[in-house]
């Protein structure tokens, strides 16, 4: 789960990480009062969307007067911002962060993320802050430094100091920077983050270490024990179909193709998408209905798939283990009737009572094609939509 910059800074403040003072607005008439709260000579007007590259897209502006704050707020709020991370459709700006500017002496990059190869949280840092870490890695990989963290000891002072020395933190600020790193690590662990990124981490002219920007991502599977983080969820920033799926306990991710997929099990779902592409098709989604695919769940899954107007056909690929194939078949038949299915549907079953399940589908008088193998099913749905 992603959150906005202003929410990330609110959370980091609880961990004694210094961030600029700011005010969040959702209406244009709030801009003036927000500007009056700024105690520095420059105010920064920032679009709040779940995407990077806002500055390059015109979503971050420096204002020297209250009139300029109002002008930029009017220019950005309510507009669709297109960045390299939003795609061509962009994202509508519904919230602005108006915060105090600062005199920057030096910018750095700092992040805690999960290194999946090492299966450890890793501290990543660079002296070149303010730019994309991918760009730094591509052009100057020698400027990126890492410390892999042992979960038993956590981030040690030695590791934090080593990073400080490698990225040339001034000696007088090493103690403060080490403390900041350890606070960031604590935030990461206690909130089940998958990413805590500060870009840039700045040293101000009055020698303070400050998180000028912040990006925090969270493990959605751990939100049950971090329910306070759920208050930061912005449904406007998520795909409506994915939001609807989460209400019914379905794992759904929207893709760009035209073949809807309904599968039980994440591994099988990935294999299903791969084999559709092998036969020249393009999956429209990842959808895992889970092990207990009830009639209600199957109906909801069909509704969500068909709400995507790009879907020209559906491939159901089910392994009947916990749930028997005949029970799933009955659910598919009833669901197809309820949603008034009007696109080709190919169903491949395997597992307990598979023959009974296929017989139920064949005798349903519905336009359902059955397949014995995953390859046969994928090939058939690709042919049907063509």
Automatic annotation (TrEMBL):
<dbReference type="GO" id="GO:0042709">
    <property type="term" value="C:succinate-CoA ligase complex"/>
</dbReference>
<keyword id="KW-0547">Nucleotide-binding</keyword>
<dbReference type="GO" id="GO:0004775">
    <property type="term" value="F:succinate-CoA ligase (ADP-forming) activity"/>
</dbReference>
<keyword id="KW-0816">Tricarboxylic acid cycle</keyword>
<feature type="binding site">
    <location>
        <position position="46"/>
    </location>
    <ligand>
        <name>ATP</name>
    </ligand>
</feature>
<feature type="binding site">
    <location>
        <begin position="53"/>
        <end position="55"/>
    </location>
    <ligand>
        <name>ATP</name>
    </ligand>
</feature>
<dbReference type="InterPro" id="IPR013650">
    <property type="entry name" value="ATP-grasp_succ-CoA_synth-type"/>
</dbReference>
<feature type="binding site">
    <location>
        <position position="199"/>
    </location>
    <ligand>
        <name>Mg(2+)</name>
    </ligand>
</feature>
<keyword id="KW-0460">Magnesium</keyword>
<dbReference type="InterPro" id="IPR016102">
    <property type="entry name" value="Succinyl-CoA_synth-like"/>
</dbReference>
<dbReference type="GO" id="GO:0000287">
    <property type="term" value="F:magnesium ion binding"/>
</dbReference>
<feature type="binding site">
    <location>
        <position position="99"/>
    </location>
    <ligand>
        <name>ATP</name>
    </ligand>
</feature>
<comment type="function">
    <text>Succinyl-CoA synthetase functions in the citric acid cycle (TCA), coupling the hydrolysis of succinyl-CoA to the synthesis of either ATP or GTP and thus represents the only step of substrate-level phosphorylation in the TCA. The beta subunit provides nucleotide specificity of the enzyme and binds the substrate succinate, while the binding sites for coenzyme A and phosphate are found in the alpha subunit.</text>
</comment>
<dbReference type="InterPro" id="IPR011761">
    <property type="entry name" value="ATP-grasp"/>
</dbReference>
<dbReference type="Pfam" id="PF00549">
    <property type="entry name" value="Ligase_CoA"/>
</dbReference>
<keyword id="KW-0436">Ligase</keyword>
<feature type="binding site">
    <location>
        <position position="107"/>
    </location>
    <ligand>
        <name>ATP</name>
    </ligand>
</feature>
<keyword id="KW-0067">ATP-binding</keyword>
<comment type="pathway">
    <text>Carbohydrate metabolism; tricarboxylic acid cycle; succinate from succinyl-CoA (ligase route): step 1/1.</text>
</comment>
<feature type="binding site">
    <location>
        <begin position="321"/>
        <end position="323"/>
    </location>
    <ligand>
        <name>substrate</name>
    </ligand>
</feature>
<dbReference type="GO" id="GO:0005829">
    <property type="term" value="C:cytosol"/>
</dbReference>
<dbReference type="GO" id="GO:0006104">
    <property type="term" value="P:succinyl-CoA metabolic process"/>
</dbReference>
<feature type="binding site">
    <location>
        <position position="102"/>
    </location>
    <ligand>
        <name>ATP</name>
    </ligand>
</feature>
<comment type="similarity">
    <text>Belongs to the succinate/malate CoA ligase beta subunit family.</text>
</comment>
<dbReference type="InterPro" id="IPR017866">
    <property type="entry name" value="Succ-CoA_synthase_bsu_CS"/>
</dbReference>
<comment type="subunit">
    <text>Heterotetramer of two alpha and two beta subunits.</text>
</comment>
<feature type="binding site">
    <location>
        <position position="264"/>
    </location>
    <ligand>
        <name>substrate</name>
    </ligand>
</feature>
<protein>
    <recommendedName>
        <fullName>Succinate--CoA ligase [ADP-forming] subunit beta</fullName>
        <ecNumber>6.2.1.5</ecNumber>
    </recommendedName>
</protein>
<dbReference type="InterPro" id="IPR013815">
    <property type="entry name" value="ATP_grasp_subdomain_1"/>
</dbReference>
<feature type="binding site">
    <location>
        <position position="213"/>
    </location>
    <ligand>
        <name>Mg(2+)</name>
    </ligand>
</feature>
<dbReference type="InterPro" id="IPR005811">
    <property type="entry name" value="SUCC_ACL_C"/>
</dbReference>
<dbReference type="Pfam" id="PF08442">
    <property type="entry name" value="ATP-grasp_2"/>
</dbReference>
<dbReference type="InterPro" id="IPR005809">
    <property type="entry name" value="Succ_CoA_ligase-like_bsu"/>
</dbReference>
<dbReference type="GO" id="GO:0005524">
    <property type="term" value="F:ATP binding"/>
</dbReference>
<dbReference type="GO" id="GO:0006099">
    <property type="term" value="P:tricarboxylic acid cycle"/>
</dbReference>
<keyword id="KW-0479">Metal-binding</keyword>
<feature type="domain" description="ATP-grasp">
    <location>
        <begin position="9"/>
        <end position="229"/>
    </location>
</feature>
């Amino acid at each position: 789960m992603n959150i906005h910059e202003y929410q990330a800074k609110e959370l980091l403040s609880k961990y004694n990480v210094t961030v600029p003072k700011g005010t969040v607005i959702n209406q244009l008439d709030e801009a003036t009062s927000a500007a009056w709260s700024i105690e520095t000579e420059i105010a920064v007007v920032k679009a709040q969307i779940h995407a990077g590259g806002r500055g390059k897209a015109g979503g971050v502006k420096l204002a020297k007067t209250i009139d300029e704050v109002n002008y930029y707020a009017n220019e950005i709020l309510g507009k669709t911002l297109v960045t390299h991370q939003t795609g061509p459709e962009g994202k509508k700006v519904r919230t602005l962060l108006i915060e105090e500017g600062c005199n920057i002496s030096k910018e750095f990059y700092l992040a805690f993320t999960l290194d999946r190869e090492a299966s450890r949280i890793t501290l990543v840092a660079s002296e070149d802050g303010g730019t994309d870490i991918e760009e730094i890695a591509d052009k100057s990989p020698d400027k990126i430094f890492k410390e892999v963290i042992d979960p038993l000891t956590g981030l040690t002072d030695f590791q934090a100091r080593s990073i400080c020395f490698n990225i040339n933190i001034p000696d007088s600020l090493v103690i403060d920077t080490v403390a900041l790193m350890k606070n960031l690590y604590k935030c990461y662990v206690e909130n089940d983050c998958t990413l805590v990124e500060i870009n840039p981490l700045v040293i101000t002219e009055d020698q303070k270490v400050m998180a000028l920007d912040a990006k925090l991502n969270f493990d959605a599977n751990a939100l049950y024990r971090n329910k306070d983080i759920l208050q930061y969820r912005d449904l406007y920033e998520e795909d409506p179909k994915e939001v609807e799926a989460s209400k019914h306990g379905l794992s759904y991710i929207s893709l760009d193709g035209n073949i809807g997929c309904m599968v039980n099990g994440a591994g099988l779902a990935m294999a299903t998408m791969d084999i559709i592409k092998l036969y020249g098709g393009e999956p429209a989604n990842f959808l895992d209905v889970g092990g207990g695919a009830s009639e209600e769940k199957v109906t909801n899954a069909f509704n969500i798939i068909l709400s995507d107007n790009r879907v020209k056909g559906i491939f159901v690929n089910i392994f009947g283990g916990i749930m028997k194939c005949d029970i799933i078949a009955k659910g598919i038949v009833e669901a197809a009737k309820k949603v008034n299915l009007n696109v080709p549907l190919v169903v491949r079953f395997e597992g307990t009572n598979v023959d009974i399940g296929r017989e139920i589908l064949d005798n349903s008088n519905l336009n359902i094609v059955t397949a014995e193998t995953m390859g046969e099913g994928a090939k058939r749905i690709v042919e049907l939509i063509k």
